[in-house]
Every structure is written in structure tokens, then in C-alpha cells.
């Protein structure tokens, strides 16, 4: 069974750095084709993709937040981390991590979307 | 980044009716790597469709996806009471993923 669970502070002050941890089970991030992403959803608003890290250590970031985000992984502990610097009240949101499963054949890999999501962690930015 | 636009913003329908939701991309989605998610209040999104037209595991066949390039559609053939929710499209063909703003399907 594939599960992911986010953890981190529920409340951070403006200008602080947020660190979120995604602990997962049932798959390995060293398996070719597997990706883990972070997505957030401000209250009452749409989903926003933030970052992703791939099985081959490739990292990609939302353009508007690229200077503030760092994604990393500890494959041995089945964890993915997201740090976001200089937090602002507009960063108040529900944060999700999710697995993107993929299947590879030869040089090509075919992804199937974010098929399993964590249960969410709510982050409020306030002084 | 590819910008996704969804229409309509809200769809008010009755159970048993057909729902047609649209997702338009600002540029062609590579390999038709377009997914649809359903989200209910207080819950994480659930993957419905991936690769434009493939149903995810356990998704009923009343949900179907179609399209190519920049125009994609999610169709719910006959709405069940549990289908009233928000539906979001997501492109993952570009290195930088994006989500659409969502379509809310309300009970009329």
C-alpha cells in the first residue's frame, strides 16, 4: 500500500523559513520513473504545483517561487523535504505531497499523474 | 509555464445529467500528459484520468477524458450524487507542471 504523510509546523511567522517533510511508504524514489511533488492550495483557491523531485535527482520548481524553494530527498529514509524561505501571509495554505507514478521502457518513461496524495498539512503564516 | 484555463467556472446540474468540463492549455501539452482530479471539501484531490483519456484505478466508467494538443475535455456521463465536487486539470508534459483553476459541479 502506497501512503504519503506530510509533517511540519502549523504556524510560522513572516520572514521565517518553512520546512516540510513528506514521509512515504510502499514505493521507492530510486525506482526509475517515480517522482514526488509538492502542491499547495490557499484557502478557497486552486491547486498550485510548487516543486518536484525525480528518481534521478532532477529538481523542478514553480517559476514564481523558484528563488524561495528547495526540494530534496533522503531515499534511504523514504522522505522528501521542501523548504520555503521568507514566508509571507499569502503562503498560508494547505500543503500536499504526492507521488507521480511512472513506467519506463527503454529510454522513455510514461507518467500517470499524481496518483497518491498525502493527507495534507495546513500552514498558517502570521505574526 | 503552460497556463491552463478551465470552463465553465461552475456547472449546475441535476443527478443523472451529463457534465462536460473543458480545459484549455496556452500551448500544446507534450505527449497529451493531461490529468483530471476530483476534490471534495476537506479532502485531498483524487486522480480520475491520466494521459488525457486513461481512467485511474477504481474510477467508474462514467468518467471519460478526451482531447489533444491544447483542448481537453472531462465528461461525466450520468452524474451520481457523489460526483458533485471540484474538478481540476493538470498538465505534466512540460517540466514545470501546472494546474487549472478548477470547475465546480454543483447540484441544481
Any overview of this molecule?
- The complex is a heterodimer of chains A (127) and B (108).
- With 127 residues, chain A is mainly β.
- Helices cover 0% and strands 57% of the residues of chain A.
- Chain A contains no helices and 11 strands.
- Chain A has strands spanning 3-7, 11-12, 18-25, 35-41, 48-54, 59-61, 69-74, 79-84, 93-105, 108-117, 121-125.
- In chain A, the strands form 2 sheets. In chain A, strands 2, 4, 5, 6, 9, 10 and 11 form a 7-stranded mixed beta sheet that branches. Chain A has a 4-stranded antiparallel beta sheet with strand order 1-3-8-7, with no helix packed on it.
- In chain B, a hairpin with a 6-residue loop joins strand 4 and strand 5 (46-50).
- Chain B starts with a strand and ends with a strand.
- Chain B has strands at residues 4-7, 10-13, 19-25, 34-39, 46-50, 54-55, 63-68, 71-76, 86-91, 98-99, 103-107.
- Chain B has no helices and 11 strands.
- In chain B, the strands form 2 sheets. In chain B, strands 2, 4, 5, 6, 9, 10 and 11 form a 7-stranded mixed beta sheet that branches. In chain B, strands 1-3-8-7 form a 4-stranded antiparallel beta sheet, with no helix packed on it.
- With 108 residues, chain B is mainly β.
- Chains A and B meet through strand 5, strand 9 and strand 10 of A and strand 4, strand 5 and strand 10 of B.
SSE inventory with pairings:
The complex is a heterodimer of chains A (127) and B (108).
Chain A: E1 3-7, E2 11-12, E3 18-25, E4 35-41, E5 48-54, E6 59-61, E7 69-74, E8 79-84, E9 93-105, E10 108-117, E11 121-125
Parallel strand pairs in A: 2-11
Antiparallel strand pairs in A: 1-3, 3-8, 4-5, 4-9, 5-6, 7-8, 9-10, 9-11
Chain B: E1 4-7, E2 10-13, E3 19-25, E4 34-39, E5 46-50, E6 54-55, E7 63-68, E8 71-76, E9 86-91, E10 98-99, E11 103-107
Parallel strand pairs in B: 2-11
Antiparallel strand pairs in B: 1-3, 3-8, 4-5, 4-9, 5-6, 7-8, 9-10, 9-11
Amino acid at each position: 500500500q502506497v501512503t504519503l504523510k506530510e509533517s511540519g509546523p502549523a504556524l510560522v511567522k513572516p520572514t521565517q523559513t518553512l520546512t516540510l517533510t513528506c514521509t512515504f511508504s510502499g514505493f521507492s524514489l530510486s525506482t526509475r520513473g517515480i517522482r514526488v511533488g509538492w502542491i499547495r492550495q490557499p484557502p478557497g483557491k486552486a491547486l498550485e504545483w510548487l516543486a518536484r523531485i525525480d528518481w534521478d535527482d532532477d529538481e523542478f520548481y514553480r517559476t514564481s517561487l523558484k528563488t524561495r524553494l528547495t526540494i530534496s530527498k533522503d531515499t534511504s529514509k523514504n522522505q522528501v523535504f521542501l523548504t520555503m524561505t521568507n514566508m509571507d501571509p499569502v503562503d498560508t495554505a494547505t500543503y500536499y505531497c504526492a507521488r507521480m507514478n511512472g513506467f519506463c521502457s527503454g529510454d522513455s518513461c510514461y507518467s500517470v499523474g499524481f496518483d497518491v496524495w498525502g493527507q495534507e498539512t495546513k500552514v498558517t503564516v502570521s505574526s | 509555464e503552460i497556463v491552463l484555463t478551465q470552463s465553465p467556472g461552475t456547472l449546475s446540474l441535476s443527478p443523472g445529467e451529463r457534465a462536460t468540463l473543458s480545459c484549455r492549455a496556452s500551448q500544446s501539452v507534450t505527449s497529451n500528459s493531461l490529468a483530471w482530479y476530483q476534490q471534495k471539501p476537506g479532502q485531498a484531490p483524487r486522480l480520475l484520468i491520466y494521459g488525457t483519456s486513461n481512467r485511474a484505478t477504481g474510477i467508474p466508467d462514467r468518467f471519460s477524458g478526451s482531447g489533444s494538443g491544447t483542448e481537453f475535455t472531462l465528461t461525466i456521463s450520468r452524474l451520481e450524487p457523489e460526483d458533485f465536487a471540484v474538478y481540476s486539470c493538470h498538465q505534466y508534459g512540460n517540466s514545470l507542471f501546472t494546474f487549472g483553476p478548477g470547475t465546480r459541479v454543483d447540484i441544481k
